[in-house]
TrEMBL record:
Residues 75-245 form the Oxidoreductase molybdopterin-binding domain. GO terms for biological process: sulfur compound metabolic process. Its EC number is 1.8.-.-. Residues 270-367 form the Moybdenum cofactor oxidoreductase dimerisation domain. This is Sulfoxide reductase catalytic subunit YedY. It comes from Lignipirellula cremea. Pfam families: Mo-co_dimer, Oxidored_molyb. The gene is yedY_1. InterPro entries: Ig_E-set (IPR014756), MoCF_OxRdtse_dimer (IPR005066), Mopterin_OxRdtase_euk (IPR008335), OxRdtase_Mopterin-bd_dom (IPR000572), OxRdtase_Mopterin-bd_sf (IPR036374), TAT_signal (IPR006311).
Length: 393
């Protein structure tokens, strides 16, 4: 049996690969030489080991995520789709319905989208903080295709249906339960479908997209949580009324208390735009000097494309200190790496936390802030995430 590398081995191997790639100046944008690659990795306390097909934060060294660390979530299972027989249908309130094969789509104008894709539940618990990855997607732009079909003026939504289906039990005002077989679906307003820069993707990082990630065709919408990026895309329907499928109206709905004067009023909203967020990916240390231990931290910050302006890091009850943002690689809808010299820390346990600040001055909230503390649902877990370490002299 082949022995799996531990965190430290993975980190050291990854650091060597990153350094070699970064030396290849012709393509520096596709490799990340982390500023915290020197020193010994300090493991986080009380954290479960990263499972397969999830991002290993402590070994993070590449800006584009390798396939073996790409997460996938599916609610109706993974469908069997024959790529040779596949057809994308575009119908509903359009002047000219279309049925397009993958080859038809590949002959159309191509576009690449750089985007960090995150599950909206990522960060909801210690066992689920690694459902995120960064990619270069390739496909054909959605907007020209819809315009070619001729969207009728009464259409207000574009609904994207996957090939995955499941029998759902609905409870409308009827005398008995209603069981129906439904496809997975999510919708965008017509305005967003035409202006959000969405593509119909068939490649990831220069390779054919894998089945578990949505092949043969997936909707990719920059700045929206993973649930909105419909996998195994099979049909696009233009409608004159709101789509109210399970994963639009009944699940992936955030229930949040909002202060209105002295009252808390609870408001429900469908999960859509990604929130401002950051996390400490790893901490490294040097040899003890005069009783202190020199430490560095490295991490990542991201949002919906508004723009990360700054990241600050705090150790224990100390002041917030500004981290250094990597100058490149950078892209509007992708994470930005940051690093910081933590100084000489005393032996023992410490808590380290980061917070991102966007170009509009919005600050990533702490767990005790109202917008997180008054949130009653699992989704949109974008609170600050404290990391605990123990340093031995």
């Amino acid at each position: 049996m082949t022995q799996q590398p531990n965190r430290r081995q993975a980190f050291q191997t990854g650091a060597s690969v990153a350094a070699a790639l970064f030396a290849w100046a012709a393509i520096p944008q596709w490799a990340m030489a982390a500023d915290a690659d020197t020193g010994e990795l300090v493991p986080f306390l009380d954290m479960p080991r990263t499972p397969p097909n999830r991002l290993d934060w402590e070994a993070l060294n590449e800006w584009l995520t390798p396939q073996d660390q790409v997460f996938s979530v599916q609610h109706y299972g993974i469908p069997e789709v024959n790529a040779q027989e596949y057809k994308l249908e575009i119908d509903g309130l359009v002047e000219k319905p279309m049925r397009l094969s993958i080859e038809d789509l590949k002959t159309r104008p191509q576009e690449e989208v750089l985007m960090t894709l995150e599950c909206s539940g990522n960060g909801a618990g210690k066992g689920f903080i690694n459902a995120i990855y960064n990619s270069r997607w390739k496909g054909t732009p959605l907007a020209p295709l819809l315009k070619e079909c001729g969207v009728k003026k009464e259409a207000i939504e574009a609904v994207f249906f996957g090939a995955d289906t499941k029998e759902e039990i609905l409870r409308p005002m009827t005398k008995s339960e209603l069981k129906v077989e439904v496809p997975f679906g999510r919708s965008l307003s017509v305005e967003d479908a035409l202006n959000k820069g969405a593509i119909l993707a068939y490649e990831r990082n220069g390779e054919p997209m894998e089945t578990r990630n949505g092949a043969p065709l997936r909707l990719i919408v920059p700045g929206l949580y993973g649930i909105a990026n419909v996998k195994w895309l099979q049909r696009i329907e233009l409608r004159d009324r709101r789509y109210m499928g399970r994963y639009m109206a009944r699940d992936y709905v955030t229930v949040r208390g909002e202060m209105q004067g002295d009252e808390v009023v609870f408001v429900e909203s469908s999960v859509a735009k990604m929130n401002l967020k950051s996390i400490i990916a790893r901490v490294t240390r040097g040899d003890t000097v005069d009783g202190g231990i020199p430490c560095q931290a490295m991490g990542a910050a991201w949002d919906d494309g508004t723009g990360v302006a700054q990241v600050e890091v705090k150790v224990d009850d100390g002041p917030w200190k500004k981290a250094v943002l990597a100058e490149e690689p950078r892209s509007k809808y992708c994470w930005t790496f940051f690093s910081i010299d933590l100084g000489n820390l005393a032996p023992g346990e410490h808590e380290i936390v980061s917070r991102a600040i966007d170009v509009d001055g919005r600050v990533q909230p702490a767990e005790g802030d109202d917008e997180i503390a008054l949130k009653k649902t699992y989704w949109e877990a974008y609170q600050q995430w404290p990391r605990k370490i123990n340093l031995e002299a």
